[in-house]
Amino acid sequence: MPPADDADRPASTPVAAPVDELDVDALRARILDVPNFPSAGVLFRDVTPMLADAEAFGRCIDALAAPWQDAGVEAVCGIESRGFIFGAALARRLEVGFVPLRKPGKLPPPLVEVEYALEYGRDRLQARSGILDGGLRTLIVDDVLATGGTLAAAHELVTRLGGLTVGAGVVIELSALGGRARWPRELPLRALLDY
Predict the structure, then answer these.
(1) Residues 79 and 101 sit within 8 Å (Cβ to Cβ)
(2) Which residue stretches of 73-132 are H helix?
(3) H or E segment at 137?
(4) Rounded distance, CA 130 to CA 176, Å?
(5) Are 158 and 126 a contacting pair, CB within 8 Å?
(6) Which residues form the Phosphoribosyltransferase domain (predicted)?
(7) Do the Cβ atoms of 147 and 121 come closer than 8 Å?
(8) Would residue 82 show up in a list of annotated catalytic residues for this protein?
(9) pLDDT for 60-75, tens place per residue?
(10) What contacts 179, CB < 8 A, 6 or more positions away?
């Protein structure tokens, strides 16, 4: 299980996965900085070069999996769309099932849905009804933690689906945006890289 002291940490304190300095540098070298994308003034962190490098991608999945090996995870939920890539690979590594959390219009009914606020507007996440019934111990995965709204909505959706969130893992945390503060303090949140 993740260390018990995670529940006592302040919401703004990063909890890093066990990745040695060489791995962090190697992973960071595979993240491409794209200025002014998708709009002016935004610095986009593109994980595509890391995904294209089998060794770097494997190290990333190993590092994401390490804190959860003995946590009793029974399912991994990945958030559309890049969370699918990391979540499915992580589920395979942990030898559990993968549940995609989708944007509207992608899944047939019956569905469970959560609506959440974005910086400019609202969005929704959906999943198949009954897919986490019985309180499956669920890990939520995404590529980036920014403002935290999507990750918080994913936690709410897991709860509505009947699952029990055990924590979350992200590849990149944009800590200046304060997204960690929106995550429940009692649940571990692991970030591999902090920008």
Answers:
(1) yes
(2) 82-94
(3) strand 137-145
(4) 37
(5) no
(6) 74-173
(7) no
(8) yes
(9) 999 999 999 999 999 9
(10) 145, 146, 147, 148, 149, 151, 173
SS3 18: coil
Q: How far apart are CA 105 and CA 161, in angstroms?
A: 18
- Residue closest to 179 by CA, chosen among 141, 143, 140, 144: 144
Q: Are 172 and 47 in contact (CB under 8 A)?
A: yes
Active site residue 115: no
Report all structural domains of the chain as residue ranges with CATH numbers, in order of start: 16-194 (3.40.50.2020)
Name the catalytic one among 59, 82, 102, 180.
Answer: 82
Q: Which two tokens stand for residue 98?
A: 């993968």
Q: Which residues contact 117 (CB under 8 A, 6 or more apart)?
A: 149
What sign results for the dihedral spanned by CA atoms 110, 144, 117, 12? positive
pLDDT tens sequence across 110-151: 999 999 998 778 999 999 999 999 999 999 999 999 999 999
